[in-house]
């Protein structure tokens, strides 16, 4: 198809609602109160890299006993993810599941870091994290490279490199001021380039072009 026949509409992320009570959220996911949370998942299947997230967390969990991995969403891979987590850390499994938590966009503000371990896609997960002001550590995909400014709003690592996910997360946990800076840069980028109003305007532009 010729380039003049193509139009691009950016994905969008709405601003999250009020931050939920941390103790209430931790209780809902069976995590100790005051836990440091890392969010990953989105949908629990191989495409969303649930196994990669669990293995990366096993490398990182020695960083602090307060760290918990929260796999968000639902899907057929929940049992496999839980079994893998227990196999890797049978005496200290810290894999949690958000289940039916009603507002994950708001809850994302409780996370220290958000991982996007998708083999493709993952834009909505990255934008949800950025809108919440959280730094993102993600596998490098063409889609995410359009959204995440590597080294500014988060980190992009080679596809499938679980050790790199853990290493970059270690850096963010060790330097909270860097994590805060990246989170604020992500919030600003999401508002300026991926706001709902901008997406609606782009759709309207396409409709006007189509109708002449």
From TrEMBL:
<keyword id="KW-0808">Transferase</keyword>
<keyword id="KW-0328">Glycosyltransferase</keyword>
<dbReference type="Pfam" id="PF13692">
    <property type="entry name" value="Glyco_trans_1_4"/>
</dbReference>
<protein>
    <submittedName>
        <fullName>GT4 family glycosyltransferase</fullName>
    </submittedName>
</protein>
<dbReference type="GO" id="GO:0016757">
    <property type="term" value="F:glycosyltransferase activity"/>
</dbReference>
């Amino acid at each position: 198809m010729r380039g003049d026949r193509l139009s691009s509409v950016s994905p969008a992320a709405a601003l999250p609602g009020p931050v939920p009570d941390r103790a209430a959220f931790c209780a809902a996911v069976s995590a100790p109160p005051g836990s440091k949370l890392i969010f990953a998942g989105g949908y629990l299947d191989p495409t969303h890299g649930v196994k990669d997230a669990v293995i990366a967390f096993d490398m990182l969990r020695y960083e602090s006993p307060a760290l918990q991995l929260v796999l968000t969403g639902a899907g057929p891979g929940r049992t496999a993810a839980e079994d893998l987590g227990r196999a890797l850390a049978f005496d200290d499994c810290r894999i949690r599941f958000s289940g039916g938590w009603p507002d994950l966009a708001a809850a994302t503000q409780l996370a220290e870091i958000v991982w996007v371990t998708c083999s493709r896609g993952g834009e909505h997960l990255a934008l949800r994290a950025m809108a919440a002001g959280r730094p993102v550590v993600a596998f490098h995909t063409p889609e995410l490279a359009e959204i995440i400014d590597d080294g500014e709003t988060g980190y992009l690592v080679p596809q499938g490199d679980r050790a790199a996910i853990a290493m970059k997360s270690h850096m963010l946990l060790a330097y909270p001021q860097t994590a805060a800076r990246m989170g604020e840069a992500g919030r600003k980028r999401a508002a300026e380039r991926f706001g709902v109003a901008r997406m609606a305007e782009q759709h309207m532009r396409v409709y006007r072009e189509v109708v002449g």
